Predict the 3D structure of the following.
Amino acid sequence: MKKILFIATSNIFLPSGGGLANRALLKALQDEYPGKVDVIHPKVSDRVPSNFYLVPDFSRIGKINGLLRGRVHKYNPWVQNFIDQHQAEYSHCFINCGIFGDLVKDIQKRGIKVCVIHHNYEVEFQMDNRSMPTFGGRFPYFVKRNELNAYRYADLNLFLTNSDLETFKRVYGDISKGRNEVIGIFEDIDRSFDSVKRKALSPRNLVICGSLNSVQTVRGMEHFSTNCLPSLHECFNENFTLLLTGRNPNEYICKLAENDSRIRLVPNPENMSETIIDSGIFICPTNVGGGIKLRVMDGLKLGMPVITHRVSARGYDAFWGKDWFQVYDDAESFKKALNNVVEIIKDNKGLRDEIIEDYRRYFSFSSGKERFLSSVTSFLS
């Protein structure tokens, strides 16, 4: 086998959901095929390994001109030129994200097999996270066109959630020429949880974390503050603390914390786990956007029971039905979920250990790497 080309579509050096997902998949390949994986990566200012090839940034005008011509990302035609120069070196290519589906056939024409890893149903994800104009509907049209090409022509389609695969079949039909498999998501390292297991869970300390300036986070918090926050005040008789922490909180998040003495805002934490470790209940209120919400893993890996909006429960199918994984849609179901979690924390002293063991079974690097490699072995043969 020649070398593998891994096209990273998020900055793997950032602590973001896309960065984690790209990083974990890349590490799994590098561990299994040392010295055989090259990486195409967005341009970063930091020094990178010698096997990284950086895609130059678009200017603002370049982005607009590109979109008018049907280009919704900066990798095309840069990747095509790269492949033309290096095609003899590679036999297989992994593309992260279906929005880059316009690259699939061009890469295959050079004799390279292509696997597309679909992190979301991109039309839903892009539009739910978009604050800029759609240019008269051109943007979603081109996103859907590219994603359809990826799904139709890739030699292998991998999905992070069953929900996304079912959405593809419903929207696009069962038209893919290659195999379709669900691999889930996993961490990029194997962790030790011994120190975490000794900490008691405190139901009066709750936490919400994530990128606190993203469109989907703010929409979720708007719904949460109106429909769910009153239940916290009622359940705990005002005696609770809700920690909001994450990157770059916007004006709405800051004002929410200023107006409620029970809310504590910690912006831009250096270490997320250390910041939230004393919390006892993890809440994910994100109610828009496709794919899997990796922020839920921040709570699960620390052994916290989770209360999540139904949209953010996608990809955590293994935990549906667990009493410590509660799903809500509205004010009434949130109140019920909160009361359930408070009770099980009181009744189950070994709850943190139980959650950590279930998390390790499904989301540790070792378990995820095994799932991922079992899905790509025949593709790489």
User: Anything to note?
Assistant: DSSP finds 16 helices and 13 strands in the chain. The first strand starts at residue 3 and ends at 7. The longest helix spans residues 331-347.
